Input
Amino acid sequence: MTRPNQRTPESEKAPASREGASQGAASQEAGGQQRADAGAHFRLSVAGGKAQDIEGKASASSLSDATFTTPRAKLIEEANQAIRGDLEGYPRALAAYDALRGDPEARAHWDMANYVTMRKLGYNDHGRVHAFITGAASMAITELLLGAGVKPDLMESGVGDADDVFLTVILGTMLHDIGNQIHRTAHEQHGVALALPILERILTPIYPDPFKRTKVRSFILGAINCHDLNPAPLTIEGGITALADGTDITKGRGRKAFSLGSVDIHSISALAVDQVVIRPGRERPVRIDVTMNNSGGIFQVEEVLAPKVIRTPLRPYVELRASMRGEGGEEPILSRVRLEGDQFVMDLDTGEQVTAEVQDTQKRVAEAVAANLNVGSERG
Output
């Protein structure tokens, strides 16, 4: 949880529409965001192209006297504190997280996945920092869902309780990208194979009964396999991992790929996202607010984040909104975007409102491949 009495800076509030008829609604929107901000469960802020802070339940005061050799080390520790804060009261999940955080094989996997994706492919961060940031985001999403009475599949099936859900989500999320060290192609399946010995090492002392241990492990492996929507996840736990992965779209991540010479729509658009906040929604349990400094950031929202809401079991439970930071610079094109079903509803800077279907490129490619092979997603 963010610190008490924290206020949203004026520059972070959604700007009001110019149309008189829309001003009241926009004012209500900004006021609602300000009130909800006190209940924000996770915030990743960026300044100058570098991720500056992660805020979760743990107070940042616990880090005030610490000295960090690199911004990367500071970011990992802040994410660690946020995760530990969310896992208070869940002993099995906390034990599993501590075991993973100190596991030398897992640490090597994160480093090699990052080497391949960044150095060989020119992609953005897929290593240790990404694992910890998405881990913190997944804990916030899980807590909001459980707090709203949503029963993840592990509980619905009778396999376990909330402690087991947190354990499943943190392990699945933090290990989801390790398969990249072999190749980006089929990295989800590679990740499942690489995770097996680590999970066996971590889960065996926590679940001495192999029957339950195997069932819990199946949910973790499913989350790893489906995090990139290839295929789309079938469980709530898998949806949380996929969505948490999609929230790591700020320019702190894109700056790394850009500085290494990868200049494409992915790295450029990532530089346009300043902040991602996960908080309780008004109409649904979870709300994700994305703050952009440039309209180019809408690519990240449309191509990366929105499909991970639409194509997962989290669709009924998540609100997604994006807004422009009013700081001058470019000529504004849009002020706010919200996801409604499969469409974006966009408030243009002219005061007009338009709708557009989310362009899920990955889904279209998968459907085209299936059509050419004369196969469908369902078989008898």
